[in-house]
Amino acid sequence: MSQAKELSPEELFQEGIRLSKIGQYEAAIAAFNQALIAKPGFAEAWNDRGMALGDLQEYDEAVASYDKAIEINPKLHQAWYNRGVALGNLGKYEEAIASWDKALEINPDLAEAWYNRGCAMGNLQHFNGAIAAFAKAIEINPNYAAAWFSQACIYMVQGNVDSAIEYLHQAIQLDRHRYLNLAKKHPGFDEIRQDSRFQNLLMQ
């Protein structure tokens, strides 16, 4: 009777990715763990293991997994970025920003890192820093609707209604269904609901 072929660390890694894509995160983690038993220095497996843990909202464990990936390969910008996401989910915004800054040192064109940096800055009420980060995300990816919308929200906090309406308009142009619905419900726009320019946006 022939034995089943033992999977290589790379094959186990790919199996973990496949399982993650279909939402089987516990099974994915088990596959990544097997890969890492065979190849403890497999930075990408530590990174993807962290992502699966994050999908299970096990953020502290995810950070520990990203830390292992970074220890092995400090230039793995995906691990720095994902570490920031996990820290942000834990409400550790300053640590998250530091992690995204490391990712951006390696890959300055990572629009998602600029966007998340902006969100964290906003949560810390560093509004000018948030605007600068969102602007950079938009510069890299002009079709980044979430960045346009988030910048509109920051402008509302600052009382800059003209810019808020301009940026909200652009977000709606890029993803009409999502951002039209958000604009209708988001409390940040409550004070301009009677503004004719805002009402015209909602009628587009």
Outline the structure in words.
The protein folds into 2 domains: 1-108, Serine Threonine Protein Phosphatase 5, Tetratricopeptide repeat; 111-204, Serine Threonine Protein Phosphatase 5, Tetratricopeptide repeat (Alpha Horseshoe), CATH 1.25.40.10. The protein has 204 residues and is mostly helical. Helix content is 75%, strand content 0%. The longest helix is centred in the first third of the chain and has 14 residues, at 25-38. Helix 9 (145-158) runs antiparallel to helix 10. It is built from 12 helices and no strands. The chain is elongated.
How are the elements arranged and paired?
Blueprint: H1 9-21, H2 25-38, H3 43-55, H4 59-72, H5 77-89, H6 93-106, H7 111-123, H8 127-140, H9 145-158, H10 161-174, H11 176-185, H12 196-202
Q: How many beta-strand segments?
A: 0
What is the CATH architecture annotation of the largest domain? Alpha Horseshoe
Instruction: Enumerate the spans where pLDDT stays under 50 for 5 or more consecutive residues.
Output: none
Radius of gyration: 21 Å
Output the CATH topology of the largest domain. Serine Threonine Protein Phosphatase 5, Tetratricopeptide repeat
Give the DSSP E fraction (strand runs of 2 or more residues): under 5%
Q: Secondary-structure element order, as H and E?
A: HHHHHHHHHHHH
Q: What overall form do the CA principal axes indicate?
A: elongated
CATH homologous superfamily of the largest domain - what is it? Tetratricopeptide repeat domain
* Fraction of residues in helix: over 70%
**Helix- and strand-based class?**
mainly alpha
